[in-house]
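User: quick one, fold this
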Amino acid sequence: MRLAATLLILCLASAPPGHSANNHPLKTTTWKNLCDVYAAFKDRMAGTKLAQQSHRKLSLDMGLQQTRTQILHQSTSDAQARRRFAVLAFYLSFEAAAARKHTEGKTEPAFWNNLEKAGQLLGQIKEFLTIAAGPRQTSTNGCITTNDGSETTGLKQGLTELGQAHGGCKALIGHTPDGLADSDVIDNQGLKKYASEASAQTSAAETGCKLLTLADNNGYVAGTSLGAGVEVAGGILKITPTTTNEQKLNDLAANPGAGSKAATAESWKGFSSPRGASSGLR
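Assistant:
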C-alpha cells in the first residue's frame, strides 16, 4: 500500500502542470497600458531632469553676468554708468537667486526623491513585462498576446517584439515611443487608463503561460497559496487565486490608498503635471 502511494506521488510530481484558473495570457489592453505608463513616466522624468539642468545653467549664467556687471561698475567713474551697472547687478542677483532656489534647499532633495520613487515603479513594471514576455519552454506559447480570443496566435516573446507590436513599449528597450502623449496616461488626478478594477486576463487558457499560473512551475508567483492575492508591476496588477485584475488608479489625488497603491501614488505625485520642455511622446 505504501509503495503504491509512493508511486502515485512520484507520478503526480513528475506530471506537467495542467490548466489552472490563472493560466491565461494578459489582455492586449493590459500589457499595452503597462508599457504606456512606463513610457509616460520615463518621458516626464526626462523633462524634469532637463528642467533641473536648465535651472542650474541659468543660475550659473546669471551669476557670471552679475560678476561682470560688478566689475564694470567698479571700473567706471561715470556716475550715470555706475547707477546703471548697479541696477543691472541687483537685477541679475535677483534672477540668479530665483534660479538657484530650484537647485538647493528643499527643492533638490525632492527632485531626487521623485526620481527615485518613479524609478522604482518603472523597474517593477519592466521586471513584470520581462518575465511575461520571457523565454518559453517547448510546446508553450507565452503570456503576451495581441489576440485576446486565442492561445495559439498573436503571442509575443521578448521586449523587442513588444516594442514592434506597440509604440509605447519601445521605451522598454531605450527607443523613443510613438503614438502616445504622456497626458494620455497621467493627469492631475491619477493614471487615466485605470478607471476601474478591470480583468487583466484573456478568456483563453494557455498551458505555457507561467506568469499568472498558480501551479508551482517557476512562474512569477510560485506555489498555490496566494491568500488575498499578490500585487505586481508596482501594484498596478493584482493576482488572486481566481483572477488577475488591473487596479483602480485614476483617483490617486483623492484616494492614494495604502500598500502598493500608496507607493504608486507617491511615484505619480512628483510627475502629476508636465515639467520642462518634455511633455509629449509623439
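User: anything notable?
Assistant: The radius of gyration is 27 Å.
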